[in-house]
Automatic annotation (TrEMBL):
Pfam families, alphabetized: Ppx-GppA, Ppx-GppA_III
Protein name: Exopolyphosphatase
Keyword Ribonucleoprotein on entry: no
UniProt entry tagged with the keyword Endoplasmic reticulum: no
Keywords attached to this entry: Hydrolase
Organism for this UniProt entry: Shewanella submarina
Domain Ppx/GppA phosphatase C-terminal: 315-478
SUPFAM superfamilies for the chain: Actin-like ATPase domain, HD-domain/PDEase-like
InterPro entries in UniProt: ATPase_NBD (IPR043129), GppA/Ppx_hydrolase (IPR050273), Ppx_GppA_C (IPR048950), Ppx_GppA_N (IPR003695), PyroPPase_GppA_Ppx (IPR030673)
């Protein structure tokens, strides 16, 4: 007889495996589909430096091919026991141009029994933008650069859709071999590399030069390494032309970079000057003011395309929806709290100068009980931990921590250090009131009117029943808890109590 008390688990979830065979590094990403979103379960990269093996006739050396084959064999072992998986391997610039690529592909097929797609530069750029769109809140006019080992992809996009796709023949490995391979770093090396990069960027169409960009993003290891080095040297990770030039001068002054940086891998250090030269040229030629690093890239584009997971217009909304389902948030109650929070917010947003933060409050209201799945006691702390440490596509680190703070302080005694951030303290007070007004989980929240001035929040309650009397007691306690945050809660209705 079947055991009806036995829990049935799906032991074979669908997995998606992407291998990005770049000119500098090979990347492996393994993901599984979870509630309509891809959950990354393993990431790995090996610096193969395939482009370093190209000679003047674009013939790939035996050593470079062997490095690539060894890496593919290692990657195969990582997913050998995953039976229910879809696998896609894509190769980029070096195998696009290698005159003996068929030799490598034949050996690779013997090492790993899956076909390798050698994709065009145009297709590489499209997949890069698609990957970025899964993790970033893209805007009306977006400019993206991805500096690879052998090529640089430059993309113009409108919201989630790429519009102009270009692949240029400049990369951090190929430029290192051509301009920075011998001797100490010099101004002349940077000058020569910059001129070559200038020619590449000058070949872009007019669409790349005639925009006021809402958002300029840089993906790939080069941009990430530059941001980390700037932060290490100057405590300033902002990628602007002034900082890039300052970094270039410092590298030239040192001449040799061995052991100079603790923030980046030693293997990345050698090709940093070449990537920096390309990035400076990009800023100068396209009149870019600032650039932000983004973690989305080609491999994420490959994964989401394999999974055929549709995009929400709002990446953050998709993320919040996925997290809510993953942790079994009560959707009806979350909706009521969100609607209440929105109604309260609208009454004080302008006075308290919070108009730009309505979405953040809505996300926090939707997810305020995310920690209750772990333990109902102190579930606000569990929720804050989950949000603070989860992978949240579309949320940068600051926004993610603000969301965690709101959830962590939506009930019980709030963290008094919130008083240091007036905006966050005010948002927290609105969320706490929305939760209080829905404590009974009766399907209908209490309707109240609120108004605010600089440090006071006035709340007007309807007269009447026992529920209102209980709420009044809750609000009296809430007034004491909000006071250390610099907010004075004033209840303006008079509740008639029974003697």
């Amino acid at each position: 007889m079947p055991d009806n008390n036995r829990i049935s688990l799906n032991t074979k979830p669908k997995h998606y495996i992407a291998i990005d065979m770049g000119s500098n590094s090979f990347h492996l990403v393994i993901a599984r589909e979870q509630d309509g979103q891809l959950q990354i379960v393993h990431k790995e990269k090996q610096q193969v430096k395939l482009a370093q093996g190209l000679d003047d006739n674009n013939r790939l050396s035996d050593d470079a091919m062997q490095r690539g084959l060894d890496c593919l064999k290692d990657f195969t072992l990582r997913f050998a026991n995953i039976s229910n998986a879809e696998i896609r391997l894509v190769a980029t610039y070096t195998l696009r141009v290698a005159s003996n690529r068929s030799e490598f592909l034949t050996q690779a097929r013997a090492a790993m029994p899956y076909p390798i797609e050698v994709i065009s530069g145009h297709e590489e750029a499209r997949l890069i933008y698609h990957g970025i769109a899964q993790s970033e809140m893209l805007k009306q006019n977006n400019l993206v650069i991805d500096i690879g080992g052998g090529s640089t992809e430059v993309i113009v996009g409108r919201h989630q859709k790429s519009c102009h796709l270009t692949s240029l023949s400049c990369g951090c490995v190929s430029y290192h071999e051509k301009f920075f391979k011998d001797g100490p770093l010099t101004q002349e090396q940077f000058h020569s590399a910059g001129l070559a990069a200038d020619e590449e960027f000058a070949s872009l169409s007019k669409a790349y030069f005639c925009q006021d960009w809402d958002l300029v993003l840089g993906s790939s290891g080069t941009v990430k390494a530059v941001a980390e080095v700037l932060n290490e040297l100057y405590d300033d990770s902002e990628i602007i032309l002034t900082n890039l030039k300052k970094l270039k001068r410092q590298l030239i002054e040192w001449g040799n970079l061995d052991g100079r940086f603790s923030s980046i891998d030693e293997r990345r250090t050698g090709i940093l000057p070449a990537g920096l030269a390309i990035l400076i040229s990009f800023f100068r030629r396209l009149s870019v003011k600032s650039l932000k690093y983004t973690s989305g890239a080609l491999r994420e584009g490959v994964l989401y395309e394999m999974a055929q997971i549709g995009q929400y217009q709002d990446v953050r909304l998709r993320t919040v929806d996925s997290i809510a389902r993953l942790y079994h948030v009560d959707p009806s109650h979350a909706l009521r709290v969100r609607d209440t929070a929105t109604q309260l917010f609208e009454q004080v947003a302008d006075t308290w100068q919070l108009r730009d933060y309505g979405q953040l409050l809505a996300y926090a209201a939707t997810l305020h009980e995310v920690g209750i799945h772990i333990n109902s006691r102190a579930h606000q702390r569990h929720g804050a931990y989950i949000i603070s440490n989860a992978d949240l596509p579309g949320f940068d680190e600051e926004l993610q921590q603000e969301l965690a703070s709101l959830i962590g302080n939506h009930r019980k005694r709030p963290d008094e250090t919130l008083a240091e951030d007036t905006r966050l303290a005010r948002l927290t007070s609105i969320l706490r009131l929305a939760v209080l007004l829905n404590l009974g989980r009766q399907g209908k929240s209490v309707t109240v009117r609120i108004n605010a001035d600089a440090n006071q929040l006035h709340i007007a309650l309807p007269r009447g029943n026992r529920t209102i009397a209980l709420l009044m007691a809750d609000l009296e306690r809430e007034a004491r808890w909000l006071q250390p945050l610099g907010i004075e809660l004033i209840v303006t209705a008079v509740i008639e109590r029974k003697s």
